[in-house]
Amino acid sequence: MMIVCAVLALLQSDAIDHAFVYHASERLQRVNVAGSFNGWNKDADAMEGSGDGLTWTKHLKLRAGSYTYKFVLNGETWILDPKASRNVDDGNGNTNSQVLIAPSTYVKPAVKGDGEITTSALLHLTEVPFLNYDRGKLTLSLRTRPNDIASIKVAVDGVGTYPLADVGGDEFYERYSVNVPWDRKRDVRYRFVLDDGKGLMVFGPNGLEPIAADKGFGNSYVVKAASFHPFVVPDWVEHSVIYHIFPDRFANGDKSNDPPNVQAWDSKLTYSSYLGGDIAGVEQHLSYLKGLGISAVFFNPVFDSPVYHRYETADYLRIDPILGTNDEFSKLTHDLKQAGIRTILDGVFNHTATTFAPFADVVKNGAESKYTSWYTFKSFPVRIGENPNYVAWFNYPSMPKVNYNSPDARQYMLNVPEYWQTKAGVEGWRLDAANEVDPDFWRAFRTKVKTLDKDAWIVGEVWGDGTPWLKGDQWDSVMNYQFRQAVLGFVTKTGSGKPSDLMGQLMRVYNSYAPQVSRNMMNLIGSHDTARILTLCEGDKSLAKLAAILQFTWVGAPSIYYGDEIGMEGAKDPDNRRGMTWSTATPSNEFLALYKTLIRVRNENLPLQSGDPLPLLSDDAKKVVAFARVLDDKADIVAINRDDVPENIDLNLKTVVGIPQSAITVEFTDALSGKVYPPTQSTLHLRLAPRSAVVLIPRSGSSLHSRHDMRPSSSVDLALSKASAHKEPQ
Length: 730
Ligand SMILES: [Ca+2]
Ligand SMILES: [Ca+2]
Hints:
Blueprint: H1 2-12, E1 15-23, E2 31-35, E3 48-49, E4 55-63, E5 65-73, E6 77-79, E7 86-89, E8 95-101, E9 131-134, E10 137-144, E11 151-156, E12 160-163, E13 165-169, E14 174-181, E15 188-195, E16 200-204, E17 207-210, E18 221-223, E19 242-245, H2 247-250, H3 279-284, H4 286-292, E20 296-299, E21 303-304, E22 315-319, H5 326-338, E23 342-347, H6 357-365, H7 407-424, E24 428-431, H8 439-452, E25 457-460, E26 477-478, H9 481-491, H10 499-512, H11 515-518, E27 522-524, H12 533-536, H13 541-553, E28 557-561, H14 590-604, H15 606-610, E29 612-619, E30 624-631, E31 634-641, E32 647-652, H16 661-664, E33 668-670, E34 676-677, E35 683-688, E36 692-698, H17 704-710, H18 713-725
This protein binds calcium ion (2 copies).
Residues 252, 254-255, 257-258, 276, 278 line the site of one calcium ion (CA).
């Protein structure tokens, strides 16, 4: 309890009063401010108007950070702040005003070695992401003010002292981090030792103290081996490639189960079109899925529902008859499993359909129903229609929100994973609108799912930061829309196209989670909720391909939205949900060829699945980005030229901290072109065609050192001289 209070005090000390002010040119009835701090809710923060209705002000307590916002005039007109210091593109073509809230303690500039440390910025918690256990190492991190402290070490009682490395940050906070080997058998007692030029200071749970004031190994954090529970995520995910199927639109394998209002497969879509896709259709394309090399399928909802997208569930224990039967589905999942493909289902637990039996019972019996506690009714009888008299998702009358304070509702929903994991061997759940459901329900859900199958995967739908749910008690992963945002910013014509933006955002997202969670991310470049990648690239195939290359080489499990692998186009919903164009899924399809290569390359190379990311180059002038994926003594190297002209780059790998020397002095093969790069002692010369990439894979047994062992030294000299005389690849 005390620890919790201390943490709260620390976090609250960050809250800063900020006044949003808007000067109107004509009298307004009301003005609100909506932004990233209130979920873009246009009604949440009403501004206070002056008597003449011209000047509007709202004070908000915000934690230090960067926020985007707009003003909403008279409840309907969204405008930028005319006095904003900066307006920023959100990557989807929308521009918002941005405000940076600096902590109040930042008035004096930070300087390294001046003896002054901004204590309000110092933060360490004995939980993710400040403390994490992964692959035999304990990672300890400290948050500080940027450019403030000359050196930081962590002293581990009885073990030693380790220097922390700067692992990145933002305008306000820098993160320093170190890996300490830990066998999880002994307790770990540690504290941070800060040197800023006026004697060593100790930072621990009691705050910052001069080291002289410290008795013994006091003011230390303790991790008890016996009670420590590492955040373990299913290991198979990082080794997987996911294929995302929208059931009504993938393939119609059984015309006999089509709904009466079914449309032609290639017809223009509305928000209520049925095309008749079904389980038989997936079954009939099993060899296609297997041929792609994917290892998991994520299905959008498959349960009985009154709507084609099935995000309104009428029966959680029944496959929609338009798709097939429970037994057909169970046969499919087992056939998939036979082909090495796991099944992930879409769980819509936030709300139900109004035809779901418990809700329908309340509609019929009103206050007398035994199901009234399953939802939040404001009055009876139930009124389904505009402004319903019950809590509903976004106030949509067709989506009444489940009340998880009801033990009966909770019990029923917890039975759902049990049924499908047992019946059909389902191995993962994607949770719809997951950030809106009571976290207590997710904790119970996790316990249930993992008790049935400790390797089952739980991935939440969150479009932004997923850290609140990714500390080990709720989910394993999120749909990584932040990854998509970074990629779009790089490849689309409306994005900045800057390698430094791409790498900065990718690393920021990577660092915000525990490494095992980042490797477990569901990395997508499109979904049923977004326009397709090729359309966002305005039909420019080379740019869409670069997005795919990033998806398959960055940290996290790639998730292919059906049809992206054959270059399908589609603007936002409903156009992004077209029927799969099977006629174009041919060997001559250039996207299909690339995707198959990328899937194979990823499947065959462990560093691409499990390696740590290491930025190598972000050259904004050349528009070239390069990074490595380092695993043990191996490093795969990816370089991408976003520019319209060829670029030459030199990667001086020897100077990069974090790449083992043995991973540099090897022969590399570009997995995309097959071109071989002979071993070099330090610098890799690359000539990159316009809008192209190389994915360099070390050839096993090709290192200079292993050659040295086997051959006379002159061979090594020859290899070296070849490397130094090596002409740029054409
Ligand atoms: Ca300082
Ligand atoms: Ca059908």
